[in-house]
Specification:
single chain, Ferritin, Rubrerythrin, domain 2, 3 domains, 3-stranded antiparallel beta sheet, 4 helices, binds fe (ii) ion
Length: 167
């Protein structure tokens, strides 16, 4: 792919991904405010933006085999843990931004687990096996991630078991 087209598709992938996530959150907000029709609209169009993002990702050639995708995921999570969030946290500290500090803390604690879990999964897949897991539990408040056994209480944010989503 020519350089400029590649850059454009990367930008479009970012924009469509963000629009999809924004609309999903706008949908939840509309639901809370008692506008189920608007909630439906945001949810549906969020999905359309996800389709656009997925098409751009494919056109870029960034959708590879699972073992490579796991390495891409490991690299991304590791970058967030080792470089991105520590530096963002330093700035948030400097600027006394408490809400940002909290959302950064919640994210980085989960990303550490994600990196490790993906590493385990990659070593299984590299041996031709699937990742051996029953359930994955995600804290809806902070994104803390647990495999197989849900904690009584989230160790990162303190939310109770009711706040966990099961996959
Ligand atoms: Fe779109
Ligand atoms: Fe993550
Ligand atoms: Fe949590």
């Amino acid at each position: 792919m020519r350089k400029m087209t590649e850059k454009n598709l990367r930008d479009a992938f970012s924009g469509e991904s963000q629009a999809s996530m924004k609309y999903l959150n706008f949908s939840m907000q509309a639901e809370k405010e008692g506008f189920p029709g608007v909630a439906k609209l945001f949810k549906a169009i969020s999905f359309a933006e996800r389709v656009h993002a997925s098409n751009h990702l494919k056109a870029l050639g960034d959708l590879k085999k699972t073992v490579e995708n796991l390495q891409t995921a490991i690299d991304g999570e590791t970058f967030e843990v080792e470089e991105m969030y520590p530096s963002y946290d330093a700035v948030a500290n400097l600027q006394n931004e408490s809400e940002a500090k909290k959302s950064i803390h919640y994210a980085v604690e989960a990303e550490k687990l994600h990196a490790k879990i993906y590493m385990d999964a990659k070593s299984q897949v590299a041996e031709g096996k699937d990742f051996d897991v029953k359930n994955v539990y995600i804290c809806k408040v902070c994104g803390y991630t647990a495999l197989n056994n849900a904690p009584h209480k989230c160790p990162v944010c303190g939310a109770s078991f009711d706040f966990f989503e099961t996959f």
